[in-house]
Structures are given as C-alpha cells and as structure tokens.
Amino acid sequence: MTLRALLARVAIEHRRVLVALGLLAVVNVGILALAVYPLSLKVSVSRRRADAAAARLTQVEHELSRVHATLATTEQADKDLARFYADVLPRDVSAARQQTYAHLSQLADEHNLAVTRRTYAIDDAYKGRLQRLHIDMVLTGEYPHIRDFIYALEASPEFVVIEDVSVAEGSRLESGLTVNLHLATYFRSDGAHGS
Fold first, then answer.
1. Lower CB count within 10 Å: N or C terminus of the chain?
2. Are 81 and 172 in contact (CB under 8 A)?
C-alpha cells in the first residue's frame, strides 16, 4: 500500500475527526484574524502611548525640579537682598554721610594720607529702591600709602564703590602724589525702608 492510499484510507475512516479538526482550525484562524490581531494592534498602540506618556512625565518632572530650584534660588536671593538692605546699606543719606565721612577720614589717617578736599552729592537721576551718594575726594601722599588705602577701602565692610581714580604727581612744593577718587555709596530711598 502506498502512502497516498494510506492517507486516503485514514481520511475516509476518520472523516468526522478530520472535519472537526478542520473546522476548529478555521475557527482558530477566524478568531486570530478577527479578535487577537486587532487586540494586539491596540496593545501595541497603547504601549507606544504609555511610553510617550512616561517620557513626557519624566520631562515634566525635570522641569518641575528646575522650577523648584529656581524658586528656592529666588527666595534665597530675596532674603540675601533684604539682609543686604538691612545690614550693609545705610538707612538714609545722613547715615551714609556719617558712615563714609568717619570711615574715609580714619583710613586716610591710618595710611598717612592728607585729605585736601572732599565733597558729597546725591545723584537725583538715579532711580529705583536705592539712591546714590557721590563722594569726590582728593588725597596726597606716597604711592605705597595710596595703594594700601585703596586696598583697605575695598576690603572694608562699609559699602563704598570706587568709580574712578586719577593720580597726578605733586608740584615742586608738594611731595608725593595727588589722587582724585570718585567714590559712591548707596542708601535706601524712602520706599525701601520696609524691605
């Protein structure tokens, strides 16, 4: 008996089982095509959406942490600025004049310099929460003393800014150098007292 004849005989004898198995195979293919495959497409789309949402969530969390860091930095800057206004700057023009007048005289004396002229002027054009007090000062003395005076002024806790320095050699009658200093300090304007 040949293989073909054997297969034909098995098919005839087990026709019912083979037909049932064939119907089951067709039903399985139908279920796969009509239910499982569309569901797998939906799962794949849902997985891509979930991955995109997770990536966006990570991005938003990073942005949120940057915002919190910026907020903390801003709050610290506000505290530092309030402390600067309260502890460093003079409260008004009279305190600014008193603080700088005594301080500059003391520094000049300590560094063997003679103060030949000193003037004060408020900068009315300066706007904002602070006002600027200009100080023009002329000193005479030796170069090392002038250098040490400028260093001491820059290192001192009083808030005085050196805006310009010009040096001229003294005449035959004077020994040493003449230094013109243009200084400034700031004080709180009336609106800044509550800061």
1. N
2. no
Predicted confidence at residue 174, as pLDDT, reads 58
pLDDT at residue 87 in the model: 82
CB 146 within 8 A of CB 113: yes
Spatial distance between the Cα atoms of 43 and 40, rounded to a whole number of angstroms: 5
Q: At a CB cut-off of 8 Å and minimum separation 6, what does 158 contact?
A: 99, 100, 103, 185
- Between helices 93-110 and 143-155, what is the axis angle to 10°? 140
The two three-digit tokens of residue 120, written as one number: 């004060």
Cβ contact 92:187 at 8 Å = yes
The answer to whether the CB of 101 falls within 8 A of the CB of 150 is: no
Residue 54 CA to residue 48 CA, distance in Å, equals 10
Distances, alpha carbon 79 to alpha carbons 74, 86, 87, 190, in Å: 9, 10, 12, 20
Rounded to the nearest angstrom, the gap between the alpha carbon of residue 4 and the centroid of all alpha carbons in its chain is 86
Q: Which two tokens stand for residue 68?
A: 């919190």
Strands (E), the chain: 114-123, 130-141, 161-169, 177-188
Q: What is the mean pLDDT of each run of 10 residues along the chain (195 residues)?
A: 82 84 88 83 90 94 94 91 84 86 92 93 77 92 93 90 87 73 85 42
